[in-house]
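Quick note —
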Amino acid sequence: MNNKPNGSVTFLFTDIEGSTKLSQEFPGTLPAALEVHNKILRDAIETNNGFVFKNTGDGFCAAFEDAFAAVKAAVDAQSGLANEKWSDAVIKARMGIDSGNAEWNGKNYIGYKSLSRAEKVMSTAYGEQIIISGDSYELVKKNFESSDKKIFNKAGNEITFTDLGERRLKDENNTVKLFQIATSGLKEDFPLLKTLDARPNNLPVQLTSFIGKEKEVKIIKKLIAENRLVTLFGPGGTGKTRLSLQVAYGLIDHFTNGVWLIELAPISDPDLIAQTIANSLKINDQSDQNTIETLNNYLKDKELLLIIDNCEHLVTACAAFTEKLLQNSKNLKIIATSREAFRSKGEHTYYVTSLSHPELNEVVSLNELSQFEAVKLFISRALEVNPGFSINNENAPALAQICYQLGGIPFAIELAAARTKVLPVEKICEKLVDRFKLLTGGRRTDLPGHQTLKAMIDWSYDLLSEKEKILLQRISVFSGGWTLEAAEKICEDDEIEDLEILDLNSHLLDKSLISAKESSGEIRFFMLESIKEYAREKLGEKNEVFKRHFDFFKDLSVYETFRSKGVTQLQWIKLIDNEIDNLRAAIKWATVNYPDEACNIISSSGEYYKIKGYYLEGHQNCIKLINSSLPITDKSKVKLFYTAGLMTESLGNETDAESYGKEGLTIARKYNNKLEIVMCLNLLGVSTNKNLARREEAMKYFQEALTLAREIDAKGEIGSILLNMSPILNNKENQVMNNKKEALKIFKELGDTRNVSLILASIGVYEFKQENLESALVYTEESLDIANLIGDKFLISVNLVNLGCINLGLKQYDKAAELLEQSIVIIKDNGYKASYLAAVMYLGEVLSKSGDDERAIGLFKESIQTGTDMENNYYLSNNYFNLGVSYFNLKDYENSLKHFDLLKICLDKTNSVHSNEKVKIAEEYINKIKNMM
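Predicted structure written out below.
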């Protein structure tokens, strides 16, 4: 502005909060962020006729003739900063406004007192906060007809002024009236102003930043505004104390007689509660009154907030005592923290959860990772002990795993972050297997129960009854939660009857050692990983509870048992979905302790693995036992070899699948176990029929298997064999459809939803090959609907590939490409090698038909590489043919001829009638090329 304000001037001073820390954390990106900050501030100031007379690098000093213009500039600037999408270095500015006499001398303002006080007003604020002095506030009000008139900014939002009372500023003899400015979209809740005085209180000054739970602060402030007793309860270490203090900082100006922290952790005698509160309030005892009477008399007319911290060990006494205090003192309010709610009259509870954190094996970008509260806390605390600490693509997965393993518990994360002083993040992650030795070294000034992770859990454990301790130990065998039914079956014995478990489980829930979640009408219970590890150590590894856990989930894995009880396959799948982590834990335990039993549970789990497409996991479970030196009987090995072959074949490795099938068949024949003979023969038929040259051999396996299956009336196997042998019967149309229809009928009778979907997909493929595209579409879509219903990722991917092919036939190329690309994502995520071979090839065909032969050639070559590894001549021949056509379209005749020759060589190996049509078309292309050349 041309005219510099003189005389009565309103100053706006700004500063960036934590600028030094930002420069350490983001040395590469902070300069760009500062440029954005500077532009926002300068635009806001100059738009409102302000004069920037100094830029400190971290902030601005601006002068205004009009006090309201300074307010609007500050509001506009804070709104601009709040709405900015910062990449990583988030800039938060604190702002102060004050008015006084000053003169511009051409270089600077003369008027030290006014300038100094403006800077002091700013220094009382926090990042995102605007503080205005009473002098400036009065000037703003003069611009309006009355003090009741509403004030709006340029966006049409009301600007509010919250009276923060008379405050003492440094080196000021007189108090200064201060107000907080706010409007829609700006933060309103802040800690106590950084002034020399405040309302009476004994709240400790926090030496570390408050991270996460900003939403919880607002919720709890609203709760205490509407209720007189609010109990923050939850597991140890979740930050209940710090949360209550953060709420208290924002409420201190609402209580004339202040806010007081009462720490109960050091006392164990309920009779000392009253004395502890009196001591904290600095109440002098009166000789003719007992402490309770003195306290009641003192509080009777006081407008006061008590923060009563760590009540869990005195919960009954605290409940009774606070109820009496509240009855006696109508203006008293209480926030209590405890690991267990009071359950007293008028109490409103708020369950304090852990910080948001990545889930197990969740893949997130570096930017996404930094948005989790637990990660933010780790980084902040790590920087306090190691200023050079940083997160990058290499250590980010380890940090994500740490935050998951520690369940987002702030206390545990702070202990882990402290270790970055001597250990890299990856090593901290590795050492969490012994977390109670790693997570020590809390602050010496903390209470004893808050100096190590183990001590924190000891505090809760020691408050339990003996039977509660026993149940806590026993439920530590569960992984991924448990139901009450499972706990009753697995945890009961002579020490605890099953009828007692309901109440004991409820007690542990009340005391925040476990949590509950209801879904689909069922309540599941969960335990934080650190508490589970603690309880598991107490239980010991040889406890009989592990065997009962294994037996329970082994029975759960057998679908036939449930089918006989009228449970549908879909219901069973959902049941296992909920218990998959327990099933995995049971398999892992049995593999070491009962290898024969492990073979049985792995085999019975094979049905679920097939449905969910967990082939790699099933294969790894089998291989671990097959390659071990553990004592396993031949009878158990049959199931192991069969399951290994089933999983391996589904992963596209027919060679190993055949090897496992033969191993299993040899043992099954030795014991003349007819059902297992059928299963292994069926597997061998599947593992050989994809090689066109071996289809006669595959048919012999299938025929022997079918004859024996009908002999023993193994309906499920009959249906499976009829379906599996269909590809070999493609030249016998009636027999193909008869087989599929018989198999479909069998599986519908058995309620085998998964195989019904599989057969519908198979019929869809058959109809597609007969060029009945509309019929193929109906069958395939029905199959996909069922696959989605049961969550069968393999069948979902297969049907997406099939739908892609059908849309290719319908010349809906964009739709076909979309479907095939969707399938490839699922296939890659789950390692379905054989499906990948097909999906990539068909996507190449779609691109070729769309005129993009260059991209198509890349996909055909990728499919060839996969097909070569698998020795799959069917897809190899198709890809050589496709390459010949694409090179022809691009007029690269030399490469076209080369791949048509490779096609003929490949098909000569198969001696299959399937080759005739491809060779015939290829010859036509070859003749065209020769004529042109």
